[in-house]
Automatic annotation (TrEMBL):
InterPro entries: AlkB-like_sf (IPR037151), FTO (IPR032868), FTO_C (IPR024366), FTO_C_sf (IPR038413), FTO_cat_dom (IPR024367). It is an enzyme of class 1 (oxidoreductase). It catalyses: an N(1)-methyladenosine in tRNA + 2-oxoglutarate + O2 = an adenosine in tRNA + formaldehyde + succinate + CO2; N(6)-methyladenosine in U6 snRNA + 2-oxoglutarate + O2 = adenosine in U6 snRNA + formaldehyde + succinate + CO2; a 5'-end (N(7)-methyl 5'-triphosphoguanosine)-(N(6),2'-O-dimethyladenosine) in U6 snRNA + 2-oxoglutarate + O2 = a 5'-end (N(7)-methyl 5'-triphosphoguanosine)-(2'-O-methyladenosine) in U6 snRNA + formaldehyde + succinate + CO2; a 5'-end (N(7)-methyl 5'-triphosphoguanosine)-(N(6),2'-O-dimethyladenosine) in mRNA + 2-oxoglutarate + O2 = a 5'-end (N(7)-methyl 5'-triphosphoguanosine)-(2'-O-methyladenosine) in mRNA + formaldehyde + succinate + CO2. Its EC number is 1.14.11.53. It comes from Anas platyrhynchos. One of its GO terms (molecular function) is broad specificity oxidative DNA demethylase activity. GO terms for cellular component: cytoplasm; nuclear speck. Keywords: Acetylation, Cytoplasm, Dioxygenase, Iron, Metal-binding, Nucleus, Oxidoreductase. The keyword Acetylation applies. Its cofactor is Fe(2+). This is Alpha-ketoglutarate-dependent dioxygenase FTO. One of its GO terms (biological process) is RNA repair. Belongs to the fto family.
Length: 460
């Protein structure tokens, strides 16, 4: 089976204590938030409250919402937490992360789910995993003698969790929960889904902590097919198949499970609510190829290579007016604005509950974005000069129209989302900010926020 289940008594007691204290600390400090996600053009609050903790500078995107990691303590990275308790909670989650990483390596090795049919390689993998567990670490220097590079890389890529999405829900505080639609499994905290944006065939590890013992747990009437409605369960079914019966596995305090290899693609899972409040820590190998600060800063540098400063004056100009270059710069401009700046500020000041770590990189991104606004205005000036051949000019105009129409549409959409009824219902510190935003009167920006006139001018 590619679903591995571990009862709580297989996990060290000390680790249980640290992690469970960490959950309660984060809850006490108000660090969990319901996300205002977008599904089919509509905004919804998730019934589950969440916080993302992980590698500094990583993000994780789900349901059109980019979450930004509260960074866990990392050597060489200065992180100022709002309290020592939040620091300790993040540290506990790193320890859980390391433990789950080793469990995943053991499980993959035990199931021979490595990318090889060579039994000698599998034997070496077994030695490798044993060496990891004995040393309690995953240092390549210590262990690489046991394993070929390809298999070392494969194991490492598929089990080195770079973040954990923490969930909290008290079902009795949620007025309405959707019913599981196919197998009469009862209340769902999280509907059937695949986890998004993960490295291919990577393991997902989940640690569950339900605050058991409340009187609400005593269910007298089991009207669900074989499942105790008081107990939390994880549901599993074959993807896009409602004929094959689904599976519901009970989750008690401190239980954990691993979804190995391609299980997250071939199957869908859901979370079935019990009666008591529950925390979970879901460890993932997020695909950060387009979701890390390092990536987006690299994109900005690439775009700004086309900006030239005249050494004899303060005048700025563009190095190239080739359509391909302009298209690339303007697409990066959109990516910075809508995938990073607006996503971050849409979540209000929630991250300040834990740390101010993201403020500095966001200010730097905004600085780059302002330069890109200037670059757009320089392209528009060149078009008005009519110095290009007619063919070149038409190409540039067509390219600009596409990107600016998209920019205008997305600005309107984000502005509307910030003023939606759902957004307005949030407490002040969680309210979405429509940022960057400026009016023509108060601004030193080279272009207006509303691009309608610019677009009409280009069309004519």
């Amino acid at each position: 089976s590619k679903l591995i289940f571990r009862k709580s008594d297989t996990v060290p007691e000390e680790l249980h204590q640290m992690v469970q204290d960490g959950f309660l600390t984060l809850r006490k400090h108000g660090c969990f938030f319901q996300d205002l996600v977008r599904i089919k053009g509509k905004d919804f609050f998730t019934p589950v409250s969440r916080i993302l903790i992980g590698k500094p500078g990583c993000t994780y995107k789900y349901l059109n919402t980019r979450l930004f990691t509260v960074p866990w303590p990392t050597e060489g990275c200065e992180i100022k937490y709002c309290s020592p308790q939040i620091h300790d909670a993040c540290k506990a989650l790193i320890k859980l992360n390391d433990y789950l990483h080793i469990e995943a390596v053991k499980a993959l090795q035990g199931q021979n789910l490595l990318d090889t049919k060579d039994t000698t390689v599998i034997d070496r993998e077994q030695n490798f995993a044993t060496s990891l567990i004995e040393k309690g670490s995953f240092s390549k220097d210590q262990s690489s003698c046991y394993v070929p590079e390809d298999d070392y890389t494969s194991l490492n890529n598929r089990t080195s969790y770079n973040l954990t999405l923490l969930n909290y829900m008290d079902p009795l505080q949620i007025p309405y929960l959707k019913q599981e639609p196919y197998f009469e499994m009862g209340n769902m905290a999280v509907s059937w889904h695949h986890d998004e944006n993960l490295v291919e065939r990577s393991t997902v590890a989940v640690y569950s902590y339900s605050c058991e013992g409340s009187s609400a747990e005593e269910a007298t009437d089991w009207n669900l097919k074989g499942r105790d409605p008081a107990v939390w369960h994880v549901g599993l079914k074959v993807a896009w198949d409602i004929e094959t019966p689904g599976l519901a596995i009970p989750l008690h305090q401190g239980d954990l499970y691993l979804m190995l290899d391609d299980l997250n693609m071939t199957h869908q899972h859901c979370v079935l609510a019990g009666f008591s409040p529950r925390f979970s820590s879901t460890h993932r190998v997020a695909d950060c190829s387009r979701g890390a600060l390092e990536y987006i800063f690299g994109q900005c540098e690439l775009a700004l290579q086309n900006l030239q400063t005249d050494s004899n004056s303060t005048a700025l100009s563009l190095k190239s007016l080739e359509t391909a270059v302009i298209k690339q710069v303007e697409e990066i401009h959109n990516e910075v604005e809508f995938e990073w700046l607006r996503q971050f500020w849409f979540q209000g000041k929630r991250y300040l509950k834990c740390t101010d770590w993201w403020l500095k990189p966001m200010a730097k991104l905004e600085e780059f974005w302002r330069k890109m606004e200037l670059m757009t205005s320089l392209v528009l000036q060149e078009v008005r000069k009519k110095e290009q051949t007619e063919e070149q000019r038409n190409e540039t105009i067509s390219c600009l129209l596409l990107v600016l129409t998209e920019r205008q549409r997305l600005r309107n959409e984000w502005a509307a989302r910030c003023q939606s009824e759902a957004a307005e219902s949030l407490p002040e510190e969680q309210k979405p900010e429509c940022h960057p935003f400026w009016t023509n009167e108060e601004s030193n920006m080279p272009l207006p926020f509303d691009l309608e006139e610019v677009i009409v001018h280009l069309q004519n």
